[in-house]
Amino acid sequence: MIKVLLFIILITSVSSSFAQKKHTVSGIIRDGATGEQLIGATVKIKELPQNGTATNSYGFYSISAYEGEYTLLFTYVGYQTVTRQVSMHQNQTINIELPPKSELKEVVISSNKPNNDQIVSPQMGVEKLSMTQINQVPVLLGERDILKTISLLPGIKSAGEGNTGFYVRGGASDQNLILLDEATVYNASHFFGFFSTFNSDAIKDVSIYKGGMPAEYGGRLSSVLDVKMNDGNKKEFAAQGGLGLISSRLKVEGPLINDKGSFMVSARRTYIDLFLKASSDSSIKGSSLYFYDINAKANYHFDDKNAIYLSGYLGKDVLSIKNTFGTNWGNSTGTIRFNHIFNNQLFSNTSLVFSNYNYAIQSFQGNSDFKATSKITDINLKEDLQFSMGNDHMLKFGLNVLHHTITPGDITTSATSTFNSRSIEQRYGFENAAYISDEWRVNDKLTLLYGIRLSSMFLLGPGTFSTYDAAGKTVTSTTYGSGQFVKSYVNPEPRISASYLLNDGSSVKASYNRNTQNIHLLTNSSSSVRTDLYVMSSNNIKPEIADQVSTGWFKNFKDNTYEFSAEVYYKWLQHQIDYKDGAQLIANQDVESQLTYGAGRAYGLELFLKKKYGRFNGWIGYTLSRTERKFNAINNGHYYPATQDRTHDLSVVGIYQLNKRWSFSGTFTYGTGNAVSYPTGKYNIGGLTTFSYSQRNGYRMPASNRLDVGATLEGKEHKKYHSSWTFGIYNLYGYRNPYLITFRDSKTVPNTTEAVQTSIFATPIPSITWNFKF
């Protein structure tokens, strides 16, 4: 199929080689103040308004035209437009630095391009968030948060207060691929989901793909959250940070040797544990409750065609109740990337990526002490290339080889513990992929983005591997040596999207894409302790598969100040995984015997209206959707609502720039309650009440809603430093959103049962943060 795609591309472009000769201009576009490469900056030929392109993730652009005299326009939101007169009689390189606007009078809410890219681009279901926007959305305790901000977009739902993850178009939380400078982040949360691992000071660009996923991404069913860190200031040394109620942060950046590179280091830490140490309550004094994260990046440009980038992340959460219980988890990533520009049309990026996630649960109670640990480690080698075949074809192709090492769970105990130590065999595997895609501008109205990704999974020894029947009993057990192939899967993943211009301000789009997933998260939601158990596709677990079709109408109006979109989608899910009732996941060598397999479906309507420019701007997002699962071993084989199923989801975001110093913001959210399992009966054994359940997710939590408000006061301008104050109130009117509902015998009415709702934030939570920059 890849050969067929290459043949089509060559046939559609070969005629241009016999026509009037074309020449190409390429280069890098940077921030004139810091030297940062600008992602998504626009390059257009004034005399040929339909000819345009945008910079890639490294600021590289390539644009072609027939011989002649032209004017190039370089634009980016928040920056002054730069023009260059060019004589297209030979290929040439033009690097551009865009000066920032001296005074940004408006807050930009949409993507990085102040044009009608939403209309023209064939890409569906993608949103690009500016850090200006993220920094102004009010959040809990003033901690600016990428994950909380994207959950305000249609089709993306927060897992709820006090829960990790987010859901995209009916997918589970582990079906989202989260990348930080190309490294996978397996758990992107601090404090059990109250904060994300992404320190906004260190972030340059955020993109979320929820439909029509480009072929260069793979390995997850639902979405890709692609986060890129700042490269560092190439012009001068600078520092910025903030002091908040529960945490502080600091970033330092500056140029390297001969202004050929730069570095950036950013760190953040909470200090709730300092208050615990000072407590007079002996039951909590000495307990630990904190998180920290460190981002670092450096780059060096050997010349105009070769550059190397090194970036890393280290984060950890620690929660320990004195002499009782403790848990900790953390991520560490590292990326080495080498950019090479072969010529004006061909760009290459080679990456070596490391990722590690681990967690531990520990009990300190007397002779019941134990420590359970688990981790997953990845090493990934990637090669990505971009080839500009004139302005009508943008070809991307590449491959990656990814090695997984999974430690499912080890239990260690003391000599006096009543528990036994146990070690579960590690699992090893290769997850590989090759892809090719082409963005083809067929004519002035029709643009196609089509390609294919070929993914494979190879499960390797050493170890003993078993198969199980539907009841979970062992059927076969085979021992394999180191490096022996146990099981393999190969899956083609076709992708195609199209946009058709109805007029200058509106278009219709459609897409189809298939995704597969070979790394699966098992979580027993009925457990009272945290478990993150990852497993690979195996002789029992098949790769999960999702086929999604979507279509929509996109409209820009009032000179692209407003954008509106309406999208509908339907997703078929195969080989879905769930646990059996009463499953034991921790330290279970035969954990795959505890699983059941089925199918799923998700469908919905997403409406999105946003105002991008002006003193008042923001957006309204609404999602009407259903998400269902079907397992033979659950609910008698009938479809039932998945946990993440919510019929209605509404978000309203508003930002108002009162003057140069004061800005105000607010967000309102409403969502149907998650599907849950409630008891349908009870019985008494030895004086103890035991509840019985008849069906999975047969009931609903109450609907939730919340209003958050914020304000920012900019300090007076100084030549060498700048400061600001951020104020916020989370849950302004103190609505008691449900976090947990439990059942118990009524204390006042005999022989009856009462439901007890637990809310985490039952009162407004104020916050204040002082931000500074030198």
Distance between the termini: 55 Å
The appropriate CATH architecture of the largest domain is Beta Barrel
Number of strands: 51
Shape: globular
Overall mean confidence score, pLDDT: 85
Global structural class: mainly beta
**What would CATH call the class of the largest domain?**
Mainly Beta
Low-confidence segments, given as residue ranges, are 11-19, 103-114
Strand content: over 45%
CA radius of gyration is 27 Å
Please tell me about this protein's structure:
- This protein has 2 domains: 2-98, Sandwich (Immunoglobulin-like), CATH 2.60.40; 226-773, Maltoporin, Chain A (Beta Barrel), CATH 2.40.170.
- It is 4% helix and 57% strand.
- It has 5 helices and 51 strands.
- It has a 22-stranded antiparallel β-barrel.
- It starts with a helix and ends with a strand.
- The model is unreliable at 11-19 and 103-114 (pLDDT under 50).
Element layout with pairings:
Layout: H1 2-14, E1 22-31, E2 42-45, E3 48-54, E4 60-66, E5 68-75, E6 82-88, E7 92-93, E8 96-98, H2 117-120, E9 126-129, H3 131-136, H4 146-150, E10 156-158, E11 166-168, E12 176-180, E13 183-184, E14 189-190, E15 195-196, E16 203-209, E17 223-229, E18 238-243, E19 247-255, E20 261-270, H5 272-277, E21 288-301, E22 306-321, E23 325-341, E24 346-363, E25 370-389, E26 393-412, E27 422-423, E28 427-441, E29 446-460, E30 463-468, E31 474-480, E32 485-503, E33 506-517, E34 519-522, E35 533-536, E36 544-557, E37 562-579, E38 595-611, E39 616-631, E40 640-641, E41 648-657, E42 662-671, E43 675-676, E44 681-685, E45 688-692, E46 699-700, E47 704-714, E48 722-730, E49 740-745, E50 753-758, E51 765-773
Parallel strand pairs: 1-7, 1-8, 12-17
Antiparallel strand pairs: 1-4, 2-3, 2-5, 5-6, 9-16, 10-11, 12-13, 14-15, 16-17, 18-19, 18-51, 19-20, 20-21, 21-22, 22-23, 23-24, 24-25, 25-26, 26-27, 26-28, 28-29, 29-32, 30-31, 32-33, 33-36, 34-35, 36-37, 37-38, 38-39, 39-40, 39-41, 41-42, 42-47, 43-46, 44-45, 47-48, 48-51, 49-50
